[in-house]
Each structure stands twice: as structure tokens, then as C-alpha cells.
Amino acid sequence: MLEIENLSVNYKAIKALLNISCRVDQGEIVALIGANGAGKTTTLNAISGIVPPAAGKISFEGEEITRMSPHKIVMKGISQVPEGRRVFAKMSVLENLEMGAYIRSDKKGIVAEIDRIFQLFPRLAERRKQLAKTLSGGEQQMLAMGRALMSRPRLILLDEPSMGLAPMLVEKIFEIIQEINREGTTVMLVEQNAHMALSIAHRAYVLETGEVVLQGPAAELAANPEVRKAYLGE
Ligand code: ATP
């Protein structure tokens, strides 16, 4: 579904990504794990068209999207949930969701989508009129995910969904990610919480200083002594 070939990204003199290749197949949850600064967010931002690649190719459903605008990439069916959630603080829950549907004009479809999101996140339904800034961290994460789902993406990119959340909420968010995936959305997940990420992913890639150093089925990586030592705290 998504194919990244020999992708490099520079920020001026900093080489953030060096020739990385990876793929996401339809129906999968694929995790990208690695330490702070390894290049995980940069990978997602390159897919979304937010940062320009210095070299390499990104294709989605057989079509090259490498230098398309972020808007066009959303139209193609890819939606990103940014790190730190970044909901529209002064808008209500409902308004935030409506903003996520900005590429759609089918009013009925949008209303049905909001219903679907309220089923997935009952907490958001209860708080539909509340300003986003008054929500807890976990609720803001749910809202950011709901907003991204409003465009009905076939691939959703999640950047550190567990960041700053209490363990119980982390579990809840990961359950919801699995549910979204079961309902047919393919997931690419960036996480510093390698333990959680590997527990729900089908496959994973390990990034170190801008390069893919390990890849494979998530269960295999979780059993790999190097991964256990470096990322699972053993
Ligand atoms: P984190 O979890 O901290 O976001 P990450 O694995 O997502 O880490 P990136 O944010 O992709 O890593 O950063 C990769 C490298 O690029 C790091 O060395 C980082 O300092 C650098 N970098 C990221 N964004 C910029 C930017 N806008 N300008 C300059 N350097 C940047």
C-alpha cells in the first residue's frame, strides 16, 4: 500500500534520514520505533508532504506521492495525527471534528462520520460542546485521532499516541488503534513506547540515527535480545 524507497531527508546540514526503505501493506499495523531524534517523526512528515525529501521515492497505492502537497496527500487517503496532539484549542470537540472533514463536501457523510467517531470515542460524544483546551491529555489524543479519521483515510499515521498519558489511558488508546485497524484502516505508528507498539503491531522497523537497523514481524523483534536491551528496558 505504502512504499518508501531510499528516502533521505536533510534539515540544512543535519541528515535526519539516510536512505531508508520500508513498506506498509494494506490492513497492517506497522510500528516505527527508535530513540529520540532517530528520525521517526521526519519519516511521517515526509510521507504527509510536510518535509521535502532530499532523495528517494514514496508511493501510495501504486502512485508516486513524493512531492505532492500535504493537501493532495490527504485527498489520496493518508491522514496524520501529529505528535503532541495539536487540537484546535479554542474550538469545540465537534468543531475540531468538522475541521478534519475539510476535504469532504458530502454533508450526510460527514454527519455519519461524526456518529461513527462518537461510537469509537464515547468520551468525545459526552464532551462534544466543550472547548478542546479543556479536555484531558487522553481526550485530546482521542480528538486528534477522531479528527484525522474524519477524512476517511485508508492509511492513518500516528505520531507518539502514548506520549504523556497515564498507563491506563495508553492501554485504552492502543485498544482503539486496534479497533480502527480491525474496521479497515491501515496504521503506521511511531512510538518511543516500544513495548506497547510491538504488542499491537504486525511488523516493525527500528530506526537509529536516520537509518533502518532492524525490521521484521513485531513478535520477532520483541524477542530480539538487542531490541530487548535497547528499547524494552532489559
Ligand atoms: P522524537 O521522538 O524526538 O520526535 P524522532 O525519532 O521523531 O524523535 P525526528 O524528530 O524525526 O526524530 O528528528 C530526526 C533528526 O532531525 C534529529 O536529529 C532532530 O534534531 C532533527 N530535526 C528534526 N526536525 C528538525 C528541524 N525542523 N530542523 C532541524 N533539525 C530537525
From TrEMBL:
<keyword id="KW-0547">Nucleotide-binding</keyword>
<keyword id="KW-0067">ATP-binding</keyword>
<dbReference type="Pfam" id="PF12399">
    <property type="entry name" value="BCA_ABC_TP_C"/>
</dbReference>
<feature type="domain" description="ABC transporter">
    <location>
        <begin position="2"/>
        <end position="234"/>
    </location>
</feature>
<keyword id="KW-0029">Amino-acid transport</keyword>
<keyword id="KW-0813">Transport</keyword>
<dbReference type="InterPro" id="IPR052156">
    <property type="entry name" value="BCAA_Transport_ATP-bd_LivF"/>
</dbReference>
<comment type="similarity">
    <text>Belongs to the ABC transporter superfamily.</text>
</comment>
<dbReference type="InterPro" id="IPR032823">
    <property type="entry name" value="BCA_ABC_TP_C"/>
</dbReference>
<dbReference type="InterPro" id="IPR030660">
    <property type="entry name" value="ABC_branched_ATPase_LivF/BraG"/>
</dbReference>
<protein>
    <submittedName>
        <fullName>ABC transporter ATP-binding protein</fullName>
    </submittedName>
</protein>
<dbReference type="InterPro" id="IPR003439">
    <property type="entry name" value="ABC_transporter-like_ATP-bd"/>
</dbReference>
<dbReference type="Pfam" id="PF00005">
    <property type="entry name" value="ABC_tran"/>
</dbReference>
<dbReference type="InterPro" id="IPR017871">
    <property type="entry name" value="ABC_transporter-like_CS"/>
</dbReference>
<dbReference type="GO" id="GO:0005524">
    <property type="term" value="F:ATP binding"/>
</dbReference>
<dbReference type="InterPro" id="IPR003593">
    <property type="entry name" value="AAA+_ATPase"/>
</dbReference>
<dbReference type="InterPro" id="IPR027417">
    <property type="entry name" value="P-loop_NTPase"/>
</dbReference>
